[in-house]
Amino acid sequence: MILIAASGLFAGVQNALAGGGSFITFPTLLLAGLDPVAASMTSTIAMFPTQAASAVGGRKLAGGISGLTFRQLFIISLVGGIAGALLLLVTPSTFFARLVPWLVLFATSVFTWGSFRSQPLHAVEGMPRWMLATIQSCIAVYGGYFGGGNGFLMLAALTLAGQQIRMATSTKNALAMAMNASATLVFALSDRISWPAALALTIGGVAGGFCGAWLMHRLPERAMRIFVVCVGLALTVWMFIR
Questions:
Q1: Nearest CA to 147 among 114, 192, 180, 116?
Q2: Distance of CA 185 to the CA centre of its chain
Q3: What is the domain extent for residue 91?
Q4: pLDDT tens column, 97-129
Q5: Any residues with CB less than 8 A from the CB of 142 and at least 6 apart, and which?
């Protein structure tokens, strides 16, 4: 429990500074003995409170784009999150265990691309409403199912649609909260959740969120992002060979 709480603390700091906290909590729960499906569910539930706080804090800057209102994007994210969570519930542990290395590799690639790309994304003039709705729906399903790197996927989609980076970041946080809220409600009904581990992660995550806010202007963000990428790569290799 101490190890799990410590990973929650670090994940909370990591999310506040750079994102990618699930790369810390997920392998910790695997090491604690949870199967991949249970680890993914427990991590989602445990880290939701800190994510919700971040989303609420930046809600005034969030908005819609490409003919879609913020409310419509929010609903798309809720429905997609539920679909992804239900998909995870019916996925056998053995199948998910084989799929996880590819999911982590994909998430790490997205995180790396989003963190270290040298050129900013250029907006696609007049992105059709249906295109953004389809992209967000796919991201939401992925977010409910696994979720690693989905923040950068949303950030890319929103900035391509034309939102400025500050607004896109706030919108992304709110939409991520929506899909994780729906997934959390679905997972809470499952008997596969390790509630002691979830509680330890939550306590550590909340404390980490406060520490992250304090450290935000004191630690180099790039170093934290490099660390997340290293964790993701190490986890990918470990999951492929285990």
A1: 180
A2: 16
A3: 2-241
A4: 788 788 878 877 876 776 666 655 566 666 788
A5: 84, 150, 153
